[in-house]
């Protein structure tokens, strides 16, 4: 397959990585995987967004954090066609410097937002279960949309290194042509990249262990809410384990190979890393499972809106993750120690 030539205004310095794909077959395959994720993710996230706004009315049901995850996933899906296009034309990234930086900025931002709000939900469940009766600061904060705005602004600040003028599209540590400013920028970007995965994952594991231990010590009558909390944090663990951890490990290996200047090995590791990054994009397909576990009201509203009739009644009467069924037409949303019964919104 012929590769689109590099723009004339780009450097011809062979030490500069122009993001050219090291293997055409690999990136052709990845392009079709990205297209598949887009084809599945676009209608799914549009339907979720519709339910949150018009059927579930997230602002009334105190689900602002969940809605922010929906927004992050939708923005991620919007970037996928460009990724598929570049892979089809033999590039790991766009050869256009401005477009390359914009894409990296969007991917970093949406990834960080998804992780931040998923972890916030897990911390909320942790306080509701392990420290029941104490003042839950997350529960207080999540009622205000200003908190979500602050999180987005903080993520914007942390993502700025991908947009600085000296940032070369695909370069990172280990490039011989790097200046000191390049090195500082790359170092900060890598700290943000690994920090936004490792720190939340440690918090997530801690919350999961504490909640499971609490479940084991509780009596039978108190286990329903605890099982729901376990389902929430375990669903987040699944998202992390499938989407974020593999690509993070591959990134660490890639940096190690570059620092040791193993050029032939780098071509292989780069393909593995990009493949795992494509895998990480299925985050936008897995997050709706988290929504269902977090809030049965959303699950019921979604099922009532989009599921066919022969599945609707069965799904509406099943409370995911609890192993119990209900015979009423209402759904129970658990928040802290208070349970509120919410009717399914009419069509």
Describe the structure.
With 347 residues, the protein is mostly helical. It has one domain: Rhopdopsin 7-helix transmembrane proteins (Up-down Bundle), CATH 1.20.1070.10. The protein is 68% helix and 5% strand. It is built from 11 helices and 4 strands. The protein has a two-stranded antiparallel sheet. The chain has a two-stranded antiparallel ribbon with strand order 3-4. It is globular and about 60 Å long. It starts with 23 loop residues before the first helix and ends with a strand. It is found in: Membrane.
Quick rundown:
The protein has eleven helices and four strands.
- The largest beta-sheet arranges its strands as 1-2
Largest beta sheet, briefly? 2 strands, antiparallel
CATH topology group: Rhopdopsin 7-helix transmembrane proteins
What's the helix count? 11
CATH superfamily: Rhodopsin 7-helix transmembrane proteins
Assigned CATH class: Mainly Alpha
Mean pLDDT: 76
Overall number of structural domains: 1
Shape: globular
**How far is it from the N-terminal to the C-terminal residue, by CA?**
51 Å
Name the beta content range.
Answer: under 5%
Total DSSP E strands? 4
Task: Determine the fraction of residues in helical runs and give it as a percent range.
Answer: 55-70%
